[in-house]
Amino acid sequence: WTAMHARLQSHLRSTGLLEGVDSVLVAVSGGQDSVCLLQLLADLRHLYSWRRLGVVHCDHRWRTDSAANAAFVVELATQRLGLEAEDVHVEARCERSAREWRYHVFSRVAAECGYGAVVTAHTSTDRRTMLLNLLRGAGPSGLVALSRNRPLPPPPGPVRLVRPLLQFAREETLAFVQQAGLPHFHDSTNDHNEHRRNRLRNEVMPQLRAGFNPRLDLALTRFMEVLEPEVEFVEDMAELAYGRALKLSALRKLPLALQRRVLHSWLARELARRRRSLRAGPSAAAGVGFDDVARCLKLLVGTTPQGAVSDQLCGGLVAVVDGEWLRLR
Predict the structure, then answer these.
(1) Would you call 325 helix, strand, or coil by DSSP?
(2) What percentage of the chain's residues is helix, strand, coil (to nearest 5)?
(3) What order do you get walking across the sheet with 23-27 strand by strand?
(4) What count of Cα atoms within 13 Å lies in the side-chain half-sphere of residue 144?
(5) Which among 52, 89, 100, 84 has a CA at the least distance from the CA of 282?
(6) Dihedrals φ, ψ of 144, to 5°?
(7) What are phi and psi of 304, to 5 degrees?
(8) pLDDT of residue 282
(9) Low-confidence ranges of the chain (pLDDT < 70)
C-alpha cells in the first residue's frame, strides 16, 4: 500500500467517478501509465466489491513488436495480476484513425461484456491534448475533450469513460512501477517527433516548463477543473433548447454562446444518427467544426427568406429555413 493508492482511493471517493459501477474495463497499452493504473485498481478492487475487473488492449499493428506488446499485456493481466483470461480482450487492426477506432472498440467490448465503465490511464502530462486542440482552433468543448468522466460514444448505453489519473503526473506513475518492480512495454512510436502529438510532448512542453512555468501540468489541470463544469453547464442548457428541428424565433432570442452550442449539438447529434443509419465506421466523416456552426448562424441574421439554404455542412448536410423552423437535409 503506497501514498499513490491512498490518493487514488481518496480521489475516487471524493469525485464518485466509479460510484455505482460493478464491473470495470481498464484500457491497457502496456506502457508505464496503464500498467500503474491496472495495478492500483487491482489492489483497490476489494474495497469497491467490483464483480469484474477486465482489460482491453488495442493492437494497431504499426510496429514490428506490436504482437509481443499484446502478448505482454495478456501475460501481465493473467499471470501477474490473476485476472481471468475471459476478462482480457485484445483487438488487432491496422487503422489510420487510431483514436476513433480505440474508443469504438472500448465502447463495443464494454457493451457486449457488461462493463459499466472503461478506465484509461491519461495523466496530467497528457493535458497536451488540450494544447493541441487549442492550436487547431478548437472551442471550449474541444479543450475539455480529455475530461475525467464522460459518456462513451455509440453503441448507446450507460457506459462511461473515466480517467482517474488526471491528478497524477507521468513522473509519479514511473516512480510507482519502478518501486513495485512492475514491467512495462515501451512504445517506440512515442519517440518519433514527426508526429505533432509527440513533438508537443517531447519538445514544446519541456520548453514551456523551462521558460514559462515549471508547474505547467498543475496549471493546466487547474484550468481544466474550472473549465469543465462551465462547459457542462452550457451543454446542459443547450440540451433543453433543441430537437430534430430548431424553432427560429426561439433560437434568435438566445445569447450567441448558447446559439453556437445549440447548433453544434444539433449538428453533431444528426450527424451521428445518420452515421448509425448508414452503419458508417468511427472515422467515416469529419466532425462538426467552427465553420459548420458559422454557416448555420448566417441563417439567423435578419429576416431569412423561406427556403434559404446554408452552404454545405459536415457529412454533406445542409440547413434549410422551413417556415418557423431550421431543419437539416
Answers:
(1) strand
(2) 55, 10, 35
(3) 88-92, 52-59, 23-27, 117-119, 160-162, 149-151
(4) 20
(5) 100
(6) -100, 20
(7) -80, 130
(8) 47
(9) 94-97, 153-157, 241-245, 276-286
pLDDT computed for residue 279 by the predictor: 57
- Count Cβ neighbours within 10 Å for each residue of 89-117 and write b for 16 or more, e otherwise: bbbeeebeeeebbbbbbbbbbbbeeebbb
Place of cell 487503422: 95
Helices (H), 117-255: 128-135, 140-143, 170-180, 196-199, 205-211, 216-239, 248-253
Per-residue model confidence (pLDDT) at position 117: 92
CA dist., res. 329 & res. 325, Å (int): 13
Closest CA to 144 of 228, 233, 218: 228
Which residue type is seen at 305? P
> Cell triple for residue 154?
455509440
Q: Where are the alpha helices (DSSP H) in the chain?
A: 3-15, 32-48, 66-75, 98-113, 128-135, 140-143, 170-180, 196-199, 205-211, 216-239, 248-253, 256-278, 290-297
Residue 165, φ and ψ in degrees, nearest 5: -100, 10
**Burial track 201-237 (b if 16+ CB lie within 10 A, e otherwise):** beeebeebeeeeeeebbebbbeebeeebeebeebbee
Residue 118: phi and psi, rounded to 5, are -105, 130
User: CA 199: distance to chain centroid?
Assistant: 21
Place of cell 474508443: 103
- The amino acid sitting at 23 is S
